User: Fold this.
Amino acid sequence: MPNQEESLLLYLNEAIATTRNKEGLFRIVTEKLRLIFPFDVISIVTIDTEGQYKRLFLRDYFTDLTIPSRHNNRNLRHPIAGTPTERILLDNKIQTLDLQEVAKEYNGESPFNYLIQQGVRFMTVVPLRIAGTSLGVMCLASRRHPHFEPADLSLLGKIGSLVAVAVSNTLAFEEVAQREREKSIQLAVNNALLSIKERGQLFHTVATEINRVVPYDYFGVRIRYRDGTHKAFAEFGKQDDGTFAPLDPDRWNEVPEYGQMEGEAMELFQHPAIYGDESFRRLSDKYRLMRYIAEHRNTRSLLIAPLWVQEDQTAVLSLSSKEEGNFDETDLELIKGLVPQITLTMQNLFAFEQIESLSAQLEQERTYLIDEINTTANFGEFIGQSPTIQPVLTRITQVAPTDTTVLISGETGTGKELVARALHNLSPRRDRALIKLNCAALPAQLIESELFGHEKGAFTGAVDRRIGKFELADGGTIFLDEVGELPLDLQAKLLRVLQEKEFERIGGRRVIHSNARVIAATNRVLEDEVAAGRFRADLYYRLNVFPVRLPALRERPEDIEPLIRFFLEGFTKKMGKPVRGLRERDLRAMQQYSWPGNIRELEHVLEQAVIVSTGPFLEFAGFSAAAAQASPPIPLPDYAPIKTLRDQERDHILAALQRTAGRVSGPNGAAVLLDINPKTLEARMKKLGIQRTVVAS
Ligand SMILES: Nc1ncnc2c1ncn2[C@@H]1O[C@H](COP(=O)(O)OP(=O)(O)OP(=O)(O)O)[C@@H](O)[C@H]1O
Assistant:
């Protein structure tokens, strides 16, 4: 062996043993090689253990050559089958190829075209083997034909063996380094998942940490539902300064068929995979969604890791990049290793967020319930022994435990609300809220927001988000009192909720599901309303599933005496008054009276009597026996509802506010019209739940 050769080999051997840094090492190798063989480009290509794919390990060039970036991409894998590399590995001999000849095999589409175009024609390929196994090839490409003597080839073979050792060391070293990075990223991500409770901040940290090892431009966790709907759970885009910022969930609104496009790509998101070159181009041919992100977001590679795949939904973590071939198998393995922890955290977050929304709902329900309890002082008992009311009570106890919609009809004061309460309390829903909405008490635009709620900013004056009564009644009962007064356009909306059990808040896009049992009441004859075109027939049939008609008090005179006793006992106790006697003539007069206000009227007559009486007998100042006898028991022609004082006050204030365009104080304010102090008016409005801004809109 000539001395020069021996010292070169020794030098390279030494460099391989002592140089840690890959780039430094290979620079030494190529410089020494170029002293012996002039070449323009050197590349080392490694093959995977199954000998299926090759991948660029290193490329260096020494003249004025330009190498397109995709030819320098170390993540791209190319199949070996049918390439010159395959033949050379099989022959295990150094060979010099004429690239123009090789190009013919590729039908002119040769991967070496860019070299040929720049005058590089020859490529000497040195197989790299270690311990009898092929590791890859070293290629020296040049413009001039290299003339190798047998001695040169033998030296090149020996250098090839040394390079094989260096490559193998480097690969092993890179693998260890990669494992280390994976471990550190796993630690950092787990730390974030365990310590951060807020969803946005948590996933921002996760996105930033993973990006340290696998750089990308987009990080997203999305949930896709079978019906084509989808939800962004956490999404971030890389900004110019390299940090991540949350993406606007509404950005897809500009794409009219986005929902459909998502639906078509559902299957794609069910399997972990990477797409980066040809594979990504194939995806964009197949899926409109992929074409869209390629064209409009410049996406060139994609990494997909499903978090969970269920029959009706798939949750996916996806990363994408504007670089071709940005992700490799190791990246996918790394992300797959993080999937269980991320999934668990998401489920925890879901549970946590659900608890938060449930407790907010409970709080709302509580407020309504307190309001309800305060506004309806009932004695919790239902008096009714008469043969007229008994069958009605039986029907009530039969229907109560079901989810059936009940329509209660009857004149004012016959106990419709009391029956609605009884229905709720006797049902399995008794532990959830009974939410009441009086359809006659509010102007149309307020009823809609009362029923369905509204989003912040949905209309002028919607300063806060408001949960609608249908939403509040989820799992409980909604009582639509005086449903016959509902304006026609709202009847249509109510019908939709009853049919589909879902609705949207005003100004909201999210569909809200409500499982509320509906009980409606009316003192109108709804059939007549339908005939007169004031009430939708379809809504009437939806509500009239189980009708309960409450008889007027005059139809059940047998109940008057027990009712009197019941109310007297209650009032005397409540007011701390002595028990006084009831004159026979007064009782008879009451039994003969027509009671247009029904039980409520009777209740009020007795309340007054308990207050004003001083002697041993109850005095009925506002209800004289003579007047009673003079009044024949005939029904009033129109059973107009008698409003409660509270409702009356509310309507009156609303009317004043409407006239002053919502203004409360000042010379043109409602307080002047109503002749009260503006502060007092504001306090009343608050108590009655009137929002001045809403009225003004
Ligand atoms: N059977 C009954 N036993 C005891 N109290 C009753 C009975 N029926 C009704 N009441 C009382 O009569 C009053 C009026 O009843 P309720 O408010 O339920 O009537 P309504 O039919 O809903 O009236 P409106 O149509 O005016 O809303 C309430 O104080 C209620 O507690």
Summary: The first helix runs from residue 3 to 18. The chain has five domains: 3-176, 196-351, 376-545, 554-630, 645-696. The longest strand covers residues 133-142.
